[in-house]
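User: what does the whole thing look like in 3D?
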Amino acid sequence: MLVTNLAILVLAGFVGFVVISKVPNTLHTPLMSGTNAIHGIVILGGLIVLGLSGEGTLNKILLVIAIVFGTINVVGGFLVTDRMLGMFKSKPEPPKKDAGAE
Amino acid sequence: MITASFLQDPNFIRSAYILAFALFIVGLMGLRHPRSAVRGNWIAAVGMGIAVVATLLIHGMGNWGLIALGIALGTVIGVPAARTVKMTAMPQMVALFNGVGGGAIALIAWVEFRESHGFDGDPLYIAIASLFAAIVGSVSFWGSNIAFGKLQEILPGRPITLGRAQQAVNAALLLACIACGVAIATGSDSELLMIGLLVAAALLGNFVVLPIGGADLPVVISLLNAFTGLSAAAAGIALNNTAMIVAGMLVGASGSILTKLMADAMNRSIPNIVAGGFGGGGAVPGGGGAADLEGKTVKSTTAADTAIQLSYARQVVIVPGYGMAVAQAQHAVRELAKELEKRGIEVKYAIHPVAGRMPGHMNVLLAEADVPYDQLKEMDEINPEFSRTDVSLVIGANDVTNPAANTNPESPIYGMPILNVNESESVIVIKRSMNPGFAGIDNELYYDEGTQMLFGDAKTAVAEITEEVKGL
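Assistant: Here's the predicted 3D structure for the full assembly of 574 residues, as C-alpha coordinates:
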Protein backbone atom coordinates (compact mmCIF):
# COMPACT_ATOMS: atom_id res chain seq x y z
CA MET A 1 0.00 0.00 0.00
CA LEU A 2 2.79 2.39 0.93
CA VAL A 3 4.67 1.72 -2.30
CA THR A 4 1.55 2.24 -4.41
CA ASN A 5 0.88 5.50 -2.62
CA LEU A 6 4.46 6.65 -3.10
CA ALA A 7 4.16 5.86 -6.81
CA ILE A 8 0.98 7.95 -6.97
CA LEU A 9 2.76 10.73 -5.08
CA VAL A 10 5.69 10.85 -7.48
CA LEU A 11 3.53 10.67 -10.59
CA ALA A 12 1.26 13.43 -9.27
CA GLY A 13 4.35 15.55 -8.71
CA PHE A 14 5.41 15.16 -12.33
CA VAL A 15 1.91 15.83 -13.63
CA GLY A 16 1.83 18.94 -11.48
CA PHE A 17 5.13 20.19 -12.86
CA VAL A 18 4.05 19.64 -16.46
CA VAL A 19 0.62 21.21 -16.08
CA ILE A 20 1.68 24.18 -13.98
CA SER A 21 4.76 25.05 -16.04
CA LYS A 22 2.44 26.09 -18.85
CA VAL A 23 0.44 28.58 -16.82
CA PRO A 24 1.33 32.13 -17.97
CA ASN A 25 2.54 34.82 -15.54
CA THR A 26 -0.73 36.65 -16.08
CA LEU A 27 -2.60 33.92 -14.24
CA HIS A 28 -0.16 33.31 -11.41
CA THR A 29 -2.33 34.88 -8.73
CA PRO A 30 -5.43 32.87 -9.69
CA LEU A 31 -3.18 29.80 -9.98
CA MET A 32 -1.98 30.33 -6.43
CA SER A 33 -5.41 30.85 -5.04
CA GLY A 34 -6.83 27.96 -7.10
CA THR A 35 -4.19 25.50 -5.93
CA ASN A 36 -4.72 26.95 -2.50
CA ALA A 37 -8.34 25.84 -2.69
CA ILE A 38 -7.24 22.40 -3.88
CA HIS A 39 -5.09 21.80 -0.81
CA GLY A 40 -8.28 22.36 1.12
CA ILE A 41 -8.61 18.64 0.32
CA VAL A 42 -7.33 18.24 3.89
CA ILE A 43 -10.95 18.59 4.86
CA LEU A 44 -11.25 14.91 3.88
CA GLY A 45 -8.76 14.08 6.62
CA GLY A 46 -10.89 15.94 9.17
CA LEU A 47 -14.07 14.20 7.97
CA ILE A 48 -12.50 10.73 8.03
CA VAL A 49 -10.98 11.04 11.48
CA LEU A 50 -14.04 12.72 13.01
CA GLY A 51 -16.56 10.49 11.23
CA LEU A 52 -14.86 7.16 11.85
CA SER A 53 -13.61 7.63 15.38
CA GLY A 54 -13.62 11.12 16.91
CA GLU A 55 -13.89 10.17 20.57
CA GLY A 56 -13.23 12.45 23.49
CA THR A 57 -14.19 16.09 23.83
CA LEU A 58 -10.81 17.61 23.04
CA ASN A 59 -10.41 15.43 19.93
CA LYS A 60 -13.86 16.45 18.76
CA ILE A 61 -13.16 20.12 19.30
CA LEU A 62 -9.84 19.92 17.45
CA LEU A 63 -11.43 18.07 14.53
CA VAL A 64 -14.35 20.48 14.26
CA ILE A 65 -11.81 23.33 14.11
CA ALA A 66 -9.90 21.39 11.46
CA ILE A 67 -13.08 20.98 9.40
CA VAL A 68 -13.94 24.67 9.81
CA PHE A 69 -10.43 25.56 8.60
CA GLY A 70 -10.63 23.09 5.72
CA THR A 71 -14.03 24.42 4.63
CA ILE A 72 -12.83 28.02 4.74
CA ASN A 73 -9.86 26.94 2.64
CA VAL A 74 -11.98 25.15 0.03
CA VAL A 75 -15.03 27.40 -0.23
CA GLY A 76 -13.16 30.67 0.14
CA GLY A 77 -10.39 29.57 -2.19
CA PHE A 78 -12.63 28.56 -5.09
CA LEU A 79 -14.91 31.60 -4.74
CA VAL A 80 -12.07 34.08 -4.61
CA THR A 81 -10.39 32.47 -7.61
CA ASP A 82 -13.64 32.64 -9.52
CA ARG A 83 -14.00 36.33 -8.71
CA MET A 84 -10.49 37.05 -9.89
CA LEU A 85 -10.76 35.05 -13.08
CA GLY A 86 -14.06 36.69 -13.91
CA MET A 87 -12.18 39.97 -14.28
CA PHE A 88 -9.77 38.79 -16.95
CA LYS A 89 -11.17 39.94 -20.26
CA SER A 90 -9.60 39.93 -23.68
CA LYS A 91 -11.35 42.75 -25.46
CA PRO A 92 -12.10 46.18 -24.10
CA GLU A 93 -15.72 46.50 -23.12
CA PRO A 94 -17.72 49.22 -24.77
CA PRO A 95 -17.12 52.38 -22.72
CA LYS A 96 -19.64 52.69 -19.93
CA LYS A 97 -21.74 55.79 -20.07
CA ASP A 98 -21.29 57.47 -16.75
CA ALA A 99 -23.75 60.21 -17.69
CA GLY A 100 -21.36 63.00 -16.89
CA ALA A 101 -20.29 61.64 -13.54
CA GLU A 102 -16.90 63.27 -13.92
CA MET B 1 -30.14 -2.09 0.47
CA ILE B 2 -28.21 -2.81 -2.68
CA THR B 3 -27.72 0.83 -3.66
CA ALA B 4 -26.44 1.86 -0.29
CA SER B 5 -23.92 -0.94 -0.06
CA PHE B 6 -22.75 -0.20 -3.60
CA LEU B 7 -22.21 3.44 -2.75
CA GLN B 8 -20.34 2.46 0.39
CA ASP B 9 -18.14 -0.05 -1.42
CA PRO B 10 -14.53 1.05 -0.79
CA ASN B 11 -13.80 0.56 -4.48
CA PHE B 12 -16.64 2.88 -5.43
CA ILE B 13 -15.28 5.50 -3.07
CA ARG B 14 -11.75 5.05 -4.41
CA SER B 15 -13.11 5.45 -7.94
CA ALA B 16 -14.80 8.66 -6.90
CA TYR B 17 -11.44 9.87 -5.59
CA ILE B 18 -9.85 9.04 -8.94
CA LEU B 19 -12.53 11.06 -10.70
CA ALA B 20 -11.96 13.89 -8.22
CA PHE B 21 -8.22 14.15 -8.78
CA ALA B 22 -8.66 13.78 -12.54
CA LEU B 23 -10.94 16.82 -12.35
CA PHE B 24 -8.30 18.72 -10.35
CA ILE B 25 -5.78 18.09 -13.13
CA VAL B 26 -8.23 19.03 -15.89
CA GLY B 27 -9.15 22.13 -13.92
CA LEU B 28 -5.53 23.19 -13.56
CA MET B 29 -5.01 22.63 -17.28
CA GLY B 30 -7.77 25.16 -17.83
CA LEU B 31 -5.67 27.76 -16.02
CA ARG B 32 -3.28 27.89 -18.96
CA HIS B 33 -5.42 30.48 -20.65
CA PRO B 34 -7.64 33.25 -19.28
CA ARG B 35 -10.46 32.10 -21.59
CA SER B 36 -10.67 28.61 -20.12
CA ALA B 37 -9.61 29.53 -16.60
CA VAL B 38 -13.02 30.27 -15.08
CA ARG B 39 -14.31 26.91 -16.22
CA GLY B 40 -11.12 25.22 -15.03
CA ASN B 41 -11.62 26.59 -11.55
CA TRP B 42 -15.18 25.28 -11.43
CA ILE B 43 -14.11 21.87 -12.73
CA ALA B 44 -11.64 21.65 -9.84
CA ALA B 45 -14.38 22.76 -7.44
CA VAL B 46 -16.68 19.99 -8.72
CA GLY B 47 -13.82 17.55 -8.13
CA MET B 48 -13.62 18.78 -4.56
CA GLY B 49 -17.37 18.35 -4.13
CA ILE B 50 -17.15 14.76 -5.38
CA ALA B 51 -14.26 14.00 -3.03
CA VAL B 52 -16.16 15.37 -0.03
CA VAL B 53 -19.38 13.50 -0.85
CA ALA B 54 -17.48 10.26 -1.44
CA THR B 55 -15.79 10.63 1.93
CA LEU B 56 -19.11 11.14 3.66
CA LEU B 57 -20.34 7.88 2.08
CA ILE B 58 -17.59 5.83 3.76
CA HIS B 59 -19.16 3.00 5.76
CA GLY B 60 -19.44 3.73 9.45
CA MET B 61 -19.29 7.52 9.34
CA GLY B 62 -20.74 9.18 12.40
CA ASN B 63 -20.62 12.41 14.36
CA TRP B 64 -22.86 13.93 11.68
CA GLY B 65 -23.90 16.85 13.83
CA LEU B 66 -20.33 17.93 14.41
CA ILE B 67 -19.43 17.45 10.74
CA ALA B 68 -22.38 19.61 9.72
CA LEU B 69 -21.40 22.20 12.32
CA GLY B 70 -17.82 22.37 11.04
CA ILE B 71 -18.83 22.69 7.40
CA ALA B 72 -21.54 25.25 8.19
CA LEU B 73 -19.19 27.42 10.27
CA GLY B 74 -16.48 27.22 7.63
CA THR B 75 -18.93 28.25 4.92
CA VAL B 76 -20.33 31.11 6.96
CA ILE B 77 -16.82 32.45 7.53
CA GLY B 78 -15.32 31.66 4.13
CA VAL B 79 -18.04 32.82 1.72
CA PRO B 80 -18.42 36.43 2.89
CA ALA B 81 -14.66 36.79 3.20
CA ALA B 82 -14.17 35.62 -0.38
CA ARG B 83 -17.07 37.71 -1.70
CA THR B 84 -16.11 41.01 -0.14
CA VAL B 85 -12.32 41.04 -0.13
CA LYS B 86 -10.89 43.89 -2.19
CA MET B 87 -8.63 42.97 -5.07
CA THR B 88 -5.82 44.98 -3.50
CA ALA B 89 -6.13 42.80 -0.40
CA MET B 90 -5.87 39.57 -2.38
CA PRO B 91 -2.34 38.62 -1.29
CA GLN B 92 -3.27 38.57 2.37
CA MET B 93 -6.50 36.68 1.64
CA VAL B 94 -4.53 33.98 -0.17
CA ALA B 95 -2.05 33.87 2.71
CA LEU B 96 -4.89 33.45 5.18
CA PHE B 97 -6.63 30.67 3.23
CA ASN B 98 -3.27 28.95 2.90
CA GLY B 99 -2.69 29.24 6.62
CA VAL B 100 -6.00 27.67 7.67
CA GLY B 101 -5.28 24.71 5.38
CA GLY B 102 -1.94 24.17 7.11
CA GLY B 103 -3.59 24.58 10.50
CA ALA B 104 -6.19 21.93 9.65
CA ILE B 105 -3.44 19.46 8.73
CA ALA B 106 -1.54 20.04 11.96
CA LEU B 107 -4.72 19.61 14.04
CA ILE B 108 -5.65 16.38 12.26
CA ALA B 109 -2.16 14.96 12.84
CA TRP B 110 -2.41 15.87 16.51
CA VAL B 111 -5.74 14.07 16.89
CA GLU B 112 -4.36 11.03 15.07
CA PHE B 113 -1.55 10.97 17.60
CA ARG B 114 -4.02 11.16 20.48
CA GLU B 115 -6.36 8.52 19.13
CA SER B 116 -3.62 6.01 18.34
CA HIS B 117 -1.76 6.70 21.62
CA GLY B 118 1.39 7.85 19.89
CA PHE B 119 0.88 5.81 16.69
CA ASP B 120 1.01 2.66 18.79
CA GLY B 121 0.62 -0.34 16.51
CA ASP B 122 0.69 1.75 13.33
CA PRO B 123 3.36 1.01 10.73
CA LEU B 124 6.33 3.36 11.03
CA TYR B 125 5.55 5.13 7.76
CA ILE B 126 2.19 6.30 9.09
CA ALA B 127 3.89 7.88 12.09
CA ILE B 128 6.51 9.53 9.88
CA ALA B 129 3.95 10.87 7.40
CA SER B 130 1.71 12.21 10.18
CA LEU B 131 4.59 13.85 12.02
CA PHE B 132 5.87 15.42 8.80
CA ALA B 133 2.36 16.73 8.13
CA ALA B 134 2.17 18.09 11.69
CA ILE B 135 5.50 19.94 11.46
CA VAL B 136 5.05 21.38 7.98
CA GLY B 137 1.35 22.16 8.52
CA SER B 138 2.15 24.04 11.70
CA VAL B 139 5.02 25.98 10.08
CA SER B 140 2.71 26.85 7.22
CA PHE B 141 -0.14 27.96 9.50
CA TRP B 142 1.99 30.31 11.57
CA GLY B 143 4.14 31.48 8.68
CA SER B 144 1.04 32.34 6.64
CA ASN B 145 -0.47 34.22 9.56
CA ILE B 146 2.67 36.33 9.87
CA ALA B 147 2.63 36.94 6.12
CA PHE B 148 -1.02 37.95 6.46
CA GLY B 149 -0.09 40.33 9.29
CA LYS B 150 2.63 41.94 7.23
CA LEU B 151 0.44 42.33 4.15
CA GLN B 152 -2.48 43.67 6.19
CA GLU B 153 0.03 46.03 7.82
CA ILE B 154 -0.83 44.78 11.30
CA LEU B 155 2.86 43.96 11.49
CA PRO B 156 5.57 46.18 10.02
CA GLY B 157 6.59 45.15 6.53
CA ARG B 158 10.28 45.61 7.23
CA PRO B 159 12.30 42.57 8.29
CA ILE B 160 12.11 41.80 12.01
CA THR B 161 15.17 39.78 12.90
CA LEU B 162 16.98 38.38 15.87
CA GLY B 163 20.20 39.49 14.24
CA ARG B 164 22.98 36.96 14.07
CA ALA B 165 21.24 34.54 16.40
CA GLN B 166 18.43 34.11 13.84
CA GLN B 167 19.96 31.25 11.89
CA ALA B 168 21.04 29.45 15.05
CA VAL B 169 17.59 29.82 16.62
CA ASN B 170 15.86 28.56 13.49
CA ALA B 171 18.21 25.59 13.24
CA ALA B 172 17.64 24.78 16.92
CA LEU B 173 13.86 24.92 16.46
CA LEU B 174 14.03 22.66 13.44
CA LEU B 175 16.18 20.22 15.37
CA ALA B 176 13.71 20.33 18.26
CA CYS B 177 10.86 19.44 15.84
CA ILE B 178 12.83 16.55 14.42
CA ALA B 179 13.96 15.33 17.84
CA CYS B 180 10.37 15.26 19.15
CA GLY B 181 9.30 13.54 15.94
CA VAL B 182 11.98 10.87 16.19
CA ALA B 183 11.14 10.22 19.86
CA ILE B 184 7.46 9.75 18.99
CA ALA B 185 8.13 7.61 15.94
CA THR B 186 10.44 5.34 17.89
CA GLY B 187 7.82 4.51 20.45
CA SER B 188 7.20 7.32 22.93
CA ASP B 189 3.53 8.10 23.48
CA SER B 190 4.06 11.22 25.58
CA GLU B 191 1.67 13.92 24.46
CA LEU B 192 4.09 16.54 25.75
CA LEU B 193 6.44 15.55 22.94
CA MET B 194 3.68 16.04 20.36
CA ILE B 195 2.78 19.43 21.83
CA GLY B 196 6.48 20.32 21.95
CA LEU B 197 6.73 19.40 18.27
CA LEU B 198 3.76 21.57 17.34
CA VAL B 199 5.00 24.52 19.43
CA ALA B 200 8.54 24.32 18.05
CA ALA B 201 7.12 24.19 14.50
CA ALA B 202 4.86 27.16 15.31
CA LEU B 203 7.82 29.21 16.55
CA LEU B 204 9.79 28.17 13.49
CA GLY B 205 6.98 29.39 11.23
CA ASN B 206 7.01 32.75 13.02
CA PHE B 207 10.76 33.14 13.01
CA VAL B 208 11.14 32.17 9.36
CA VAL B 209 8.64 34.70 8.04
CA LEU B 210 9.18 37.63 10.44
CA PRO B 211 12.63 38.52 9.02
CA ILE B 212 11.31 38.57 5.46
CA GLY B 213 10.69 42.00 3.98
CA GLY B 214 7.58 43.05 2.06
CA ALA B 215 9.01 42.72 -1.43
CA ASP B 216 10.11 39.13 -0.81
CA LEU B 217 6.63 38.06 0.22
CA PRO B 218 5.68 36.73 -3.25
CA VAL B 219 8.36 34.10 -2.80
CA VAL B 220 7.32 33.28 0.74
CA ILE B 221 3.64 32.99 -0.03
CA SER B 222 4.29 30.56 -2.85
CA LEU B 223 6.73 28.63 -0.67
CA LEU B 224 4.15 28.31 2.12
CA ASN B 225 1.58 27.24 -0.47
CA ALA B 226 3.94 24.46 -1.54
CA PHE B 227 4.46 23.50 2.11
CA THR B 228 0.76 23.17 2.80
CA GLY B 229 0.39 21.06 -0.35
CA LEU B 230 3.21 18.74 0.65
CA SER B 231 1.87 18.31 4.16
CA ALA B 232 -1.58 17.53 2.71
CA ALA B 233 0.05 14.84 0.57
CA ALA B 234 1.81 13.44 3.65
CA ALA B 235 -1.48 13.42 5.55
CA GLY B 236 -2.95 11.55 2.57
CA ILE B 237 -0.26 8.88 2.87
CA ALA B 238 -0.96 8.53 6.58
CA LEU B 239 -4.69 8.13 5.89
CA ASN B 240 -4.20 6.06 2.71
CA ASN B 241 -6.30 8.58 0.80
CA THR B 242 -5.36 8.95 -2.87
CA ALA B 243 -7.37 12.16 -3.41
CA MET B 244 -5.34 13.85 -0.69
CA ILE B 245 -2.05 12.49 -2.02
CA VAL B 246 -2.64 13.69 -5.58
CA ALA B 247 -4.19 17.03 -4.69
CA GLY B 248 -1.51 17.79 -2.12
CA MET B 249 1.27 16.89 -4.50
CA LEU B 250 -0.22 18.99 -7.34
CA VAL B 251 -0.19 21.97 -5.02
CA GLY B 252 3.30 21.11 -3.83
CA ALA B 253 4.53 21.07 -7.42
CA SER B 254 2.74 24.28 -8.33
CA GLY B 255 3.98 26.11 -5.26
CA SER B 256 7.55 24.93 -5.89
CA ILE B 257 7.49 26.11 -9.50
CA LEU B 258 6.14 29.52 -8.55
CA THR B 259 8.68 29.87 -5.76
CA LYS B 260 11.50 29.07 -8.18
CA LEU B 261 10.14 31.52 -10.78
CA MET B 262 9.87 34.31 -8.23
CA ALA B 263 13.34 33.69 -6.86
CA ASP B 264 14.80 33.62 -10.38
CA ALA B 265 13.07 36.91 -11.16
CA MET B 266 14.97 38.43 -8.25
CA ASN B 267 18.21 36.69 -9.11
CA ARG B 268 18.36 35.28 -5.61
CA SER B 269 18.37 31.78 -4.24
CA ILE B 270 15.46 30.53 -2.16
CA PRO B 271 17.67 29.90 0.92
CA ASN B 272 18.98 33.45 0.58
CA ILE B 273 15.45 34.86 0.67
CA VAL B 274 14.33 32.64 3.53
CA ALA B 275 17.46 33.62 5.45
CA GLY B 276 15.83 37.05 5.30
CA GLY B 277 16.84 40.62 5.95
CA PHE B 278 17.78 41.72 2.45
CA GLY B 279 20.53 44.30 2.70
CA GLY B 280 21.77 42.84 5.95
CA GLY B 281 24.37 40.62 4.33
CA GLY B 282 26.93 41.77 1.81
CA ALA B 283 24.65 44.40 0.42
CA VAL B 284 25.24 47.73 2.10
CA PRO B 285 22.40 50.17 1.43
CA GLY B 286 23.67 53.36 -0.11
CA GLY B 287 26.95 51.72 -1.05
CA GLY B 288 27.98 50.56 -4.48
CA GLY B 289 26.12 52.39 -7.16
CA ALA B 290 24.85 55.18 -4.98
CA ALA B 291 28.27 56.78 -4.61
CA ASP B 292 28.47 57.53 -8.32
CA LEU B 293 25.22 59.42 -8.18
CA GLU B 294 26.45 62.22 -5.95
CA GLY B 295 26.33 65.56 -7.66
CA LYS B 296 23.76 64.34 -10.14
CA THR B 297 20.32 65.82 -9.97
CA VAL B 298 16.86 64.67 -10.81
CA LYS B 299 14.49 66.55 -13.08
CA SER B 300 11.00 66.97 -11.81
CA THR B 301 8.01 67.56 -14.03
CA THR B 302 4.32 68.43 -13.81
CA ALA B 303 1.12 66.66 -14.70
CA ALA B 304 0.50 69.12 -17.53
CA ASP B 305 3.90 68.52 -19.08
CA THR B 306 3.51 64.75 -18.70
CA ALA B 307 0.16 64.95 -20.47
CA ILE B 308 1.73 66.75 -23.41
CA GLN B 309 4.54 64.23 -23.73
CA LEU B 310 2.11 61.34 -23.54
CA SER B 311 -0.29 62.71 -26.09
CA TYR B 312 2.47 63.22 -28.66
CA ALA B 313 3.77 59.67 -28.23
CA ARG B 314 3.13 56.81 -30.59
CA GLN B 315 3.75 54.11 -28.01
CA VAL B 316 3.45 54.40 -24.24
CA VAL B 317 4.46 51.63 -21.88
CA ILE B 318 3.04 51.72 -18.36
CA VAL B 319 5.18 50.03 -15.70
CA PRO B 320 3.11 49.38 -12.57
CA GLY B 321 4.54 48.38 -9.20
CA TYR B 322 3.47 47.94 -5.62
CA GLY B 323 3.00 51.71 -5.34
CA MET B 324 0.09 51.44 -7.75
CA ALA B 325 -1.51 48.80 -5.54
CA VAL B 326 -1.02 50.84 -2.38
CA ALA B 327 -2.54 53.94 -3.95
CA GLN B 328 -5.32 51.80 -5.52
CA ALA B 329 -4.53 53.64 -8.72
CA GLN B 330 -5.42 50.84 -11.16
CA HIS B 331 -8.74 52.40 -12.23
CA ALA B 332 -7.15 55.83 -12.69
CA VAL B 333 -4.43 54.21 -14.79
CA ARG B 334 -7.03 52.53 -16.96
CA GLU B 335 -8.82 55.85 -17.49
CA LEU B 336 -5.59 57.47 -18.63
CA ALA B 337 -4.87 54.58 -20.99
CA LYS B 338 -8.37 54.90 -22.47
CA GLU B 339 -7.83 58.60 -23.13
CA LEU B 340 -4.51 57.90 -24.82
CA GLU B 341 -5.97 55.09 -26.90
CA LYS B 342 -8.71 57.41 -28.11
CA ARG B 343 -5.90 59.49 -29.59
CA GLY B 344 -4.51 56.48 -31.42
CA ILE B 345 -1.60 55.94 -29.06
CA GLU B 346 -0.49 52.38 -28.48
CA VAL B 347 -0.59 51.59 -24.74
CA LYS B 348 1.04 48.52 -23.24
CA TYR B 349 1.69 47.40 -19.70
CA ALA B 350 5.04 45.95 -18.66
CA ILE B 351 4.64 43.46 -15.84
CA HIS B 352 7.70 42.36 -13.91
CA PRO B 353 7.25 38.88 -12.39
CA VAL B 354 7.85 40.12 -8.84
CA ALA B 355 6.01 43.45 -9.07
CA GLY B 356 3.67 43.63 -6.10
CA ARG B 357 3.27 41.32 -3.17
CA MET B 358 2.33 38.03 -4.78
CA PRO B 359 2.97 36.30 -8.11
CA GLY B 360 0.85 37.95 -10.78
CA HIS B 361 -0.42 40.64 -8.39
CA MET B 362 -0.37 43.46 -11.01
CA ASN B 363 -2.28 41.36 -13.53
CA VAL B 364 -5.16 40.87 -11.12
CA LEU B 365 -5.35 44.55 -10.22
CA LEU B 366 -5.30 45.68 -13.84
CA ALA B 367 -7.82 43.01 -14.79
CA GLU B 368 -10.07 44.42 -12.07
CA ALA B 369 -9.79 47.79 -13.80
CA ASP B 370 -10.92 46.15 -17.08
CA VAL B 371 -7.53 46.25 -18.77
CA PRO B 372 -7.64 43.54 -21.45
CA TYR B 373 -5.10 40.83 -20.62
CA ASP B 374 -3.54 40.92 -24.08
CA GLN B 375 -2.17 44.39 -23.24
CA LEU B 376 -0.34 43.00 -20.22
CA LYS B 377 3.14 42.08 -21.41
CA GLU B 378 5.57 39.86 -19.57
CA MET B 379 9.15 41.00 -19.11
CA ASP B 380 10.70 39.01 -21.96
CA GLU B 381 8.01 40.17 -24.33
CA ILE B 382 8.17 43.87 -23.51
CA ASN B 383 11.91 44.39 -23.06
CA PRO B 384 12.71 44.47 -26.80
CA GLU B 385 9.90 47.04 -27.20
CA PHE B 386 11.35 49.74 -24.97
CA SER B 387 13.80 50.94 -27.61
CA ARG B 388 10.87 51.90 -29.81
CA THR B 389 8.76 53.33 -27.01
CA ASP B 390 8.36 57.09 -26.74
CA VAL B 391 7.34 57.36 -23.12
CA SER B 392 7.59 54.83 -20.30
CA LEU B 393 5.35 55.75 -17.40
CA VAL B 394 6.61 54.12 -14.20
CA ILE B 395 3.92 54.06 -11.53
CA GLY B 396 5.09 53.00 -8.10
CA ALA B 397 7.72 50.56 -9.36
CA ASN B 398 11.32 51.01 -8.31
CA ASP B 399 13.90 48.26 -8.02
CA VAL B 400 12.56 46.36 -11.03
CA THR B 401 13.50 49.34 -13.24
CA ASN B 402 16.96 50.04 -11.80
CA PRO B 403 19.54 49.84 -14.61
CA ALA B 404 22.22 49.17 -11.97
CA ALA B 405 21.00 45.57 -12.10
CA ASN B 406 22.44 45.39 -15.62
CA THR B 407 25.44 47.67 -15.39
CA ASN B 408 26.83 47.91 -11.86
CA PRO B 409 28.43 44.71 -10.55
CA GLU B 410 28.69 46.28 -7.09
CA SER B 411 24.98 46.86 -6.77
CA PRO B 412 23.17 44.44 -4.46
CA ILE B 413 20.60 43.79 -7.17
CA TYR B 414 23.20 43.22 -9.90
CA GLY B 415 22.08 40.37 -12.14
CA MET B 416 18.38 40.67 -11.37
CA PRO B 417 16.40 40.73 -14.61
CA ILE B 418 14.77 44.13 -14.93
CA LEU B 419 12.47 46.04 -17.24
CA ASN B 420 14.77 48.09 -19.47
CA VAL B 421 12.70 51.28 -19.29
CA ASN B 422 15.83 53.42 -19.63
CA GLU B 423 15.99 52.35 -23.29
CA SER B 424 12.86 54.27 -24.13
CA GLU B 425 12.93 57.82 -25.50
CA SER B 426 11.85 59.31 -22.21
CA VAL B 427 10.81 57.99 -18.82
CA ILE B 428 8.37 59.57 -16.41
CA VAL B 429 8.39 58.21 -12.88
CA ILE B 430 5.45 58.81 -10.59
CA LYS B 431 6.67 58.47 -7.04
CA ARG B 432 5.78 59.86 -3.66
CA SER B 433 9.30 60.88 -2.73
CA MET B 434 12.92 60.13 -3.46
CA ASN B 435 12.95 57.41 -0.80
CA PRO B 436 14.73 54.32 -2.08
CA GLY B 437 12.76 51.15 -2.76
CA PHE B 438 12.62 47.98 -0.77
CA ALA B 439 16.21 46.98 -1.51
CA GLY B 440 17.31 50.27 0.07
CA ILE B 441 19.35 51.34 -2.95
CA ASP B 442 19.19 54.44 -5.06
CA ASN B 443 17.74 54.01 -8.51
CA GLU B 444 20.13 55.28 -11.19
CA LEU B 445 17.20 55.57 -13.53
CA TYR B 446 16.00 58.69 -11.70
CA TYR B 447 19.25 60.50 -12.46
CA ASP B 448 19.18 59.60 -16.15
CA GLU B 449 19.12 62.26 -18.86
CA GLY B 450 15.79 61.06 -20.23
CA THR B 451 14.04 60.64 -16.89
CA GLN B 452 11.63 63.05 -15.25
CA MET B 453 10.06 62.64 -11.86
CA LEU B 454 6.46 63.45 -11.10
CA PHE B 455 6.18 63.53 -7.32
CA GLY B 456 2.86 62.72 -5.73
CA ASP B 457 0.38 60.01 -4.85
CA ALA B 458 -0.02 57.65 -7.80
CA LYS B 459 -3.81 57.87 -7.96
CA THR B 460 -3.98 61.66 -7.73
CA ALA B 461 -1.11 62.16 -10.14
CA VAL B 462 -2.54 59.82 -12.77
CA ALA B 463 -5.98 61.42 -12.46
CA GLU B 464 -4.40 64.87 -12.97
CA ILE B 465 -2.57 63.70 -16.06
CA THR B 466 -5.82 62.28 -17.44
CA GLU B 467 -7.60 65.60 -16.91
CA GLU B 468 -4.76 67.42 -18.66
CA VAL B 469 -4.83 64.99 -21.58
CA LYS B 470 -8.58 65.52 -21.93
CA GLY B 471 -8.04 69.25 -22.01
CA LEU B 472 -5.51 69.14 -24.82
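In plain terms: The CA atoms of residues 16 and 57 of chain A lie 39 Å apart. DSSP finds four helices and no strands in chain A.
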